[in-house]
């Protein structure tokens, strides 16, 4: 008799309670009678042998009894700790339902409370105290073929700011959605926190805070440590892509520029966010019968998110024939000190390229009117910043104003879906960073789109897993944007939808990954040979949450 586990051989130590505590191998009440006899499980489980479907029903019943989403989040993380197969079976049965629980908005609350709801470690924690030993520390990770590491510094978590080590909830959730939404096998995915400390004094004074109790060093001090980390990843996991996530704005821009042409890496807050916005804009162009390169874009907010999205829009406009200078000239920004214009002396270099000749103004309505803005994008974390006057002015200068309120959580949205549709008299093409309910106006039902990076980064992750590219390029993200937009049907366009429904997210992601993979092969970036049928090739490698027999006669 030979015995094989779901992720490899089952060792002689993986018996009895030890086996039940291995979440990648545990099947709980689904262990067969033969497996119970073979692995010393008899008497340790109730006698009934259940199917995944039966276990699934019990999980849904127990989740239904939880009064809040944060309690459902905690329950699901405990399930992840005890039985990964069942966890993914539950989540992949209805990703659209579980995404708001496992990720935004609930993960924001989970990060705020991370040290208080902590149960077991997930992923790796590498701190500044381990500088000089990063490669040695990485050796402790049991999986040796890591393909994607999602690394955060906890410096800017969602719209919540610097949460330090509490930010670990983000890479955990991101990589769970790689699997749940795009079928990327979970074993080679590594969530990781680089702990520099935190400037959040409330956390530093919290006796249950789990991170380094020090304020953040300067970027000049952290850069050698991050350099060491990036090099250690190349040496420890040579086929690994680094997914940078939720770094402080200036750090995010700096480190992406530093490594993007040297190693396989990307920053989801910059490139992923930019891509999903371009996807929504491409869909909006189908509705308005216009071209992206002809638009006039104004960002409310001029931080790293705005810069990242603007740079991606520039890349998309260049593919439509504009020069870089021409494309930048069609994009404006507005922050707490007013419109970014060429007399401002307080701008960073990456902001100056979007500061054009214009009279100084602190009035957003005036700026929209004078520039004749066609696309307004909020990345400010200032709730209700888009007033009725703002929306009405956008409607005055456009037949179909395009308004994106991207800040989250919900209370930080610059304008709600209901306000946008009502104040524009149903003319707005609206997207938000959070999911709003359908809006009924004047006999019509509008389905507001959620500009959620989940449309892009899992598909990019699947492409990376499959093609093993040398680098990740902006063109890959633009292709992902176009592939996403192309999946919105004409019927959905009439309801104002800017993104495909999330109800069939796996198929959407695979179709997007197919387009991106084809581009990777065409550009000579892949380290794998191109297959004859990319779609079939991708689908054959998708993770399926199912129990494998541990006993073969």
Would you summarize the structure shown here?
The chain is of the alpha/beta class and 553 residues long. 44% of the residues lie in helices and 11% in strands.
What features would you describe in this structure?
The protein is an alpha/beta fold and 553 residues long. The protein has 2 domains: 101-263, Malic enzyme, N-terminal domain (Rossmann fold); 269-553, Rossmann fold, CATH 3.40.50.720. Helices cover 44% and strands 11% of the residues. It has 25 helices and 17 strands. The strands form 4 sheets. It has a 7-stranded mixed beta sheet with strand order 10-9-8-11-12-13-16, sandwiched between helices. The chain has a 5-stranded parallel beta sheet with strand order 3-5-4-6-7. Strand 11 (375-378), helix 19 and strand 12 form a beta-alpha-beta unit. Residues 1-8 have low confidence and may be disordered.
**Which strand-content bin applies to the residues?**
5-15%
Q: How does the helix and strand content classify structurally?
A: alpha/beta
The biggest sheet, with number of strands, parallel, antiparallel or mixed sense and barrel status, is: 7 strands, mixed
Order of strands side by side in the largest beta sheet?
A: 10-9-8-11-12-13-16
Number-wise, the strands total: 17
Oligomer classification: single chain
CA radius of gyration: 24 Å
Mean pLDDT over all positions: 94
| Low-pLDDT ranges | 1-8
The figure for the number of domains is 2
Number of helices: 25
The first-level CATH class of the largest domain is given as Alpha Beta
Helical proportion, percent range: 40-55%
Global shape: globular
CATH architecture of the largest domain: 3-Layer(aba) Sandwich
User: Termini, distance in Å?
Assistant: 6 Å
